[in-house]
Amino acid sequence: QTPNDGVALKNFRLTADSNGMLRDWTGDNPCQGSPWSGVICSNGRVFELKLEGLQLSGSIDALGGLDQLRLLTVKDNNLTGPIPDFSNWRNMQLLYLNGNQFTGPIPESVGSMWRLARLNLQNNFLNGTIPNVFDNLTRLQTLRLEGNNLTGAIPPINNSMINDFSVAGNQLSGSIPLSLVRFNASSFLGNGDLCGAPLTACPETLAPTVPPEIEPTLQPVSSPVTPRSKGGSRLSTGEIVAIVVGDVAALMLVTLGFLVYYWRRRSCKNQEKPSKGGEIDRGEFSSGQYSTAQLPDSEKNKLVFLEGSKHVFELEDLLRASAEMLGKGSFGTAYKAVLEDGSVVAVKRLKDVSTNGKKEFEQQMELIGKLKHRNIVPLRAYYYAKGEKLLVYDYQQNGSLYSLLHGNRGPGRTPLDWVTRLKIALGAARGLAYLHQECGSQKIPHGNIKSSNILLDKNYNACIADYGLALLMTSSAATTRMAGYRAPEHADTKRISQRADVYSFGVVLLELLTGKAPVPAYSNAAQEEGIDLPRWVHSVVREEWTAEVFDIELMRYRNIEEEMVGLLQVAMVCVSPAPEQRPKMSQVVKMIEDIRPDQGLSMDEEGFESMSQSPLSLEGPPPSEPPAT
Ligand SMILES: Nc1ncnc2c1ncn2[C@@H]1O[C@H](COP(=O)(O)OP(=O)(O)OP(=O)(O)O)[C@@H](O)[C@H]1O
Description:
Layout: H1 5-16, E1 39-42, E2 45-50, E3 57-58, E4 71-73, E5 78-82, E6 94-96, E7 101-104, E8 118-120, E9 125-126, E10 142-144, E11 151-152, E12 164-166, E13 171-175, E14 193-195, H2 237-272, E15 304-305, H3 315-320, E16 322-329, E17 332-338, E18 344-350, H4 358-370, E19 379-385, E20 388-394, H5 401-406, H6 418-438, E21 454-456, E22 462-464, H7 475-480, H8 490-493, H9 498-514, H10 533-542, H11 561-574, H12 585-593, H13 605-610
Helix pairs in contact: 6-9, 6-12, 9-11
Bound molecules: adenosine-5'-triphosphate.
Adenosine-5'-triphosphate binds near residues 330, 348 and 452.
């Protein structure tokens, strides 16, 4: 009789899910009907279970019955109790129980999971000795046991497949077995009394191992593993991001309050004495930044509207508008301005402009103003004065791709579905291809392609922002931007190029596919290096866990795996280290269109809305691996 995986999962949900994180586990069969989040089936049986960071608590005993599991990850929850007998999990290949509050010993039955490639039990409260069974696991590559309360000596582990090993931060003692001296000291640090290479040599009396009766007196020394309070739970990434964002928001509020206060005081003073001719001194830009350039009368009110833009307001109106700071970038600060007639524009206040005066700036603006395409943010007007340069753009109401992907990864987040991601990828590719072609023989690059420069209009149509600005900026601004998106050759040449844009665009595609940010969320992106997304994806794909690279949010959609792999291939060729191996943007557009050739990726808005998108099922081995801890 086939074991009932649905019953096992429902029992687990009853025990562990007091917060309702698994409320879409409805119906009786997890492998039929609407998918259960985190559950992947093959041939009608539960095959992968990914339940990371969901505040689950209680025991996982009920999962012991899922005998077809290849992958189980429950990392970063609050699960408790002993680890169940492993003998039912004979097919298990990837097992992540780390970051919980499991207690008791590691069962001997771990030796029965003969297919196991990765075992991560780190950061729990496991005690007892390490069972001497790991030599049975001939496929094991990762063994992470750090941050527990394990005692006794480390058994000999002769398995040469293991390349990722740590027992740091336990209470182990005795000499390190010879078979493990190939690992760094960091794999062993923070134990009570471990000795021998790669740590310091054992005193003669201690080697080879400490007798068990003296173990309780051994105290752990400072551990390289993050300390955890007993019974406490660590902050999830989402919570950390929320705290950081909260802090930043609070800081911005305080700053804003200060500026408003400062501004009011200035305005009062200005009311007392009449302003000098031409000084821009309006206070209605509530962030108060945008105020004090001295202008000769001749330059006053010269907001220059570009070809095709209706001249609908004056500089005065702009200065009177209520404004909200959108963010600071490497070219200056962007504001959202709501004019008195209700229309909304985005205003960029430039810093560090390197043109040879007004004429050159105007020429550049006229050039930028001529560019028209549905996938680029239109520049409507500009303002030039000695200490003040403003650019006025259409405001894009759905913000940037960066904030859509990484802005709120915590509870309450609206996932970004696959069709929208594909649509954004194609729109942005078309916008950039247009810019590359339009500049034709001059080969003018964008020079700053990244997800915060891909903006979304009300229909989630992707538009490229900030084009044409890289050429205006001083080299210091140019070198500080682009962390995480910069092509490798840029380190030597410092020159921007269309080929380097293609590389940056490849990073954006990887961001869409993985959900990972190449620059840390809400940090000062200009100054901090983020993760090297191309390198990370390469390393995961090389290990043949291709499915693992994809954003967990995309796991709910069926039948999109082929398309995701298709887009991954496009991304990988874009991030080729050698510039000449990268395709042109026009070719990239074609490749993305080909991902859904007969379903009309090249269609208009309506076409996109109607494209099919059903939750994903990954069939057959190998299972995907969760991100490294
Ligand atoms: N036209 C616009 N409509 C809506 N949001 C915008 C607009 N222009 C810029 N923003 C948003 O304002 C914020 C600041 O933009 P800005 O271009 O100044 O900096 P950046 O894109 O983060 O960095 P960089 O200057 O290097 O491009 C970003 O989050 C961006 O998405």
